[in-house]
């Protein structure tokens, strides 16, 4: 087999080319194109797309480079027999000249008929669609081409019945109430005897789960949401999320990159980000935690600062491309700090911060933290990898720990008689709480632990959440945040 990963992105954005955790690193088209270029073009490519050095390029230089890259790309694609690419890439100019015997579409529930037709036009004799019709459909559409195929052609449907992606307790409810017990979820006590599962789902957060077999916790919030520009915000949930994130990353128990925060409302997303950015304690922990991980990496190589990376590469004959490959994470950190120093967008964060590569890493991070404290700002997502996103944007992603902020709560208005329970039913077809696809996505993105913040008395009146709240109550997985204060 001759596999190939095709991406339209250039080197500066295509981190999967360099990052060792990506298995397709050595099969990336961009990487293979780079390696096949002549030394002259290779230097031009590196300076243009990777190092971003202030070098002037003539139009002819770039024209020749692009033509050479295109010719190399076509040649490499032609000599490969298994192509991995995104939907956008499959319909791009790079793939126009090729036909395929078999086309396999992953996350097919997100494809429209028009997009599938574009793939079929590749003269494929077999079309294999892989997806989940219980999850989200394309934005703005009630049904996808995939779900229509399942309803009209059940004979050619194969149900996958094993899951290894998340702790069994996280999927248990969706499996019983939505999937009809089709994915097989072994009893956790049986899984514990299997060392690979035990190690894979090992919890390092230190959170007081109800039992070893449960990794879902619903944290009750008794404050009603408020409406801002026709969008809902729940300030109490945002405050609790900050405390929870502080607990998770304390003592480097959980890497910030392993935490995802999901909410159905954009206003809440930005409010949570605002609260995280302005929390001094959190930013201090993030900065020191990031420093310690980078320092540990350099320490294993016997290096103390950025300057010694150059010496290391010279000693072992590592060229620019290999250097970027090996020290990608370190260089990314250095460039981030340098960019924030120079960027007008973040001048408030880093004014006066000198990101010299000759400076000791610890001093660099201490300076950075001092600026964070002084200005109460921090690029949470861009720098530390802690992701805050909407439900749609999180489809296809996974984090070890997910914090779900449900936001909406109008219990006080219900109790006062200001609104009737029937009012909550008016827009059930369009609301998040009645959308099975959104529910499945938001509650199945975690592999190790799921935290849900909301008002159980409000949610028990809304669609599938009625059953979910009852399920969690029977499992004793509902608590108040005040109950957790002595523990976290």
From TrEMBL:
Domain DNA2/NAM7 helicase helicase, which positions?
A: 73-138
Signal peptide segment: none
Entry keyword annotation includes ATP-binding: yes
Q: Which is an annotated GO molecular function term of this record?
A: DNA helicase activity
Q: Name one Pfam family in it.
A: AAA_11
Q: Which keywords does the record carry?
A: ATP-binding, Helicase, Hydrolase, Nucleotide-binding
Q: Which residues form the DNA2/NAM7 helicase-like C-terminal domain?
A: 141-281, 364-456
- Does Protease show up as a keyword for this record? no
Family annotation (Gene3D superfamilies):
P-loop containing nucleotide triphosphate hydrolases
Specify the domain of life of the species encoding this protein: Eukaryota
UniProt-recorded name of the protein: P-loop containing nucleoside triphosphate hydrolase protein
Q: Which organism is it from?
A: Ascoidea rubescens DSM 1968
């Amino acid at each position: 087999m001759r596999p190939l990963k095709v991406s339209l992105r250039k080197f500066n954005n295509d981190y999967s080319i360099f990052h060792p955790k990506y298995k397709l690193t050595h099969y990336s088209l961009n990487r293979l194109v780079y390696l096949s270029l002549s030394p002259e073009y290779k230097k031009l490519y590196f300076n243009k797309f990777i190092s971003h050095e202030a070098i002037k390029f003539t139009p002819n230089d770039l024209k020749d480079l692009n033509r050479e890259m295109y010719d190399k790309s076509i040649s490499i694609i032609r000599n490969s027999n298994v192509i991995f690419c995104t939907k956008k890439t499959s319909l791009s100019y790079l793939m126009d000249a090729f036909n395929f015997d078999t086309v396999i579409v992953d996350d097919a529930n997100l494809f429209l008929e028009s997009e599938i037709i574009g793939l079929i036009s590749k003269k494929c004799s077999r079309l294999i669609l892989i997806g989940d019709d219980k999850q989200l459909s394309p934005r703005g559409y009630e049904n996808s081409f995939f779900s229509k195929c399942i309803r009209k052609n059940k004979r050619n449907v194969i149900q996958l019945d094993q899951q290894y992606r998340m702790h069994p307790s996280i999927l248990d409810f969706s499996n019983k109430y939505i999937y009809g017990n089709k994915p097989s979820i072994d009893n956790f006590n049986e899984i514990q005897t299997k060392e690979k599962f035990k190690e894979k789902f090992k919890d390092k957060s230190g959170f007081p789960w109800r039992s070893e077999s449960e990794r879902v916790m619903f944290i009750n919030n008794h404050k009603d949401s408020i409406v801002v520009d026709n969008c809902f915000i729940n300030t109490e949930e945002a405050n609790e999320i900050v405390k929870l994130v502080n607990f998770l990353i304390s003592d480097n128990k959980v890497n910030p990159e392993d935490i995802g925060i999901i909410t159905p409302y954009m206003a809440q997303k930005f409010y949570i980000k605002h609260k995280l950015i302005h929390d001094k304690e959190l930013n201090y922990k993030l900065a020191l935690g990031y420093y310690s991980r980078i320092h540990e990496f350099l320490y294993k190589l016997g290096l103390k600062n950025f300057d010694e990376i150059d010496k290391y590469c010279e000693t072992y004959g590592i060229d620019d491309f290999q250097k970027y490959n090996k020290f990608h994470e370190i260089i990314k950190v250095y460039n981030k700090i340098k960019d924030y120093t120079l960027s007008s967008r973040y001048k408030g964060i880093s004014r006066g911060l000198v990101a010299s590569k000759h400076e000791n890493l610890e001093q660099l991070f201490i300076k950075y933290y001092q600026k964070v404290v002084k200005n109460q700002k921090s690029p949470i997502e861009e720098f530390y990898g802690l992701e805050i996103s909407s439900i749609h944007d999180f489809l296809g992603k996974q984090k070890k720990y997910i914090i779900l902020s449900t936001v909406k709560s109008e219990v006080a208005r219900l109790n006062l008689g200001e609104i009737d329970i029937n009012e909550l039913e008016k827009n059930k077809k369009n609301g998040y709480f009645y959308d099975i696809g959104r529910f499945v996505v938001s509650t199945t993105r975690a592999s190790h632990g799921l935290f849900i913040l909301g008002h159980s008395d409000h949610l028990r009146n809304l669609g599938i959440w009625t059953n979910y709240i009852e399920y969690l109550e029977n499992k004793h997985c509902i608590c108040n945040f005040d109950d957790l204060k002595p523990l976290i």
